Amino acid sequence: MAVRSVSLAIEPGEFVAIMGASGSGKSTMMNTIGCLDRPTSGKYWLDGVDMGKLSRNQLADLRNQKLGFVFQGFNLLSRTSALENVELPMLYSRPAHAGREQRARATRALELVGLAERTDHHPSQLSGGQQQRVAIARALVNEPKLLLADEPTGNLDTQTSIEIMGIFQGLNRQGMTIVMVTHELDIARFAKRTVVMRDGRIVGDQPVTGRLDSVDELRKLQLEQQAVQLAP
Description:
alpha/beta, Rossmann fold, 6-stranded mixed β-sheet, two-stranded antiparallel sheet
């Protein structure tokens, strides 16, 4: 779905959820924000720079330096360890990082998402939630200014989804700007602002009311699970 007549500003430090039915244009919007697609008309400015004036190589460098991507499908290399998967974006950094620095930064990123004890594990040895944590660490390793997440909980169970939202909320509290595409209303309530799209246009843009906190939601879920176990 083409995006048409859209005007959207996202400020540093925001946590925005883009919602809409299939074909609403939210994926096109995400690809445009992530400099994967070029708009055929209008302008897109990122961090004060007009993206329409950059070459393909310049856009690739910008994506590597300023943007982090998290996808529904994890997109991890199956024959490499979690640490090596996280190191991958640094292989394309300019100037290049020394090997020791690459390893240290990748290790810190995995520690940030709670996988300090799984650095040598391959994707097949990790749960879906752990694989998504590796993908988040990979997105963070170059210290981007903007994190883009496309249906990051689409393949995860309820508890793991809340845990992933907890990571995002923690990153956002530290100043990370996050834009997340989701079709799940409950997941969108972990964000601070919701943008709703339909037929390629924005039809809603408002702060989240009744925002969910990951710690509270995990506690509620655990109490519910305990009650089920105690039921005769």
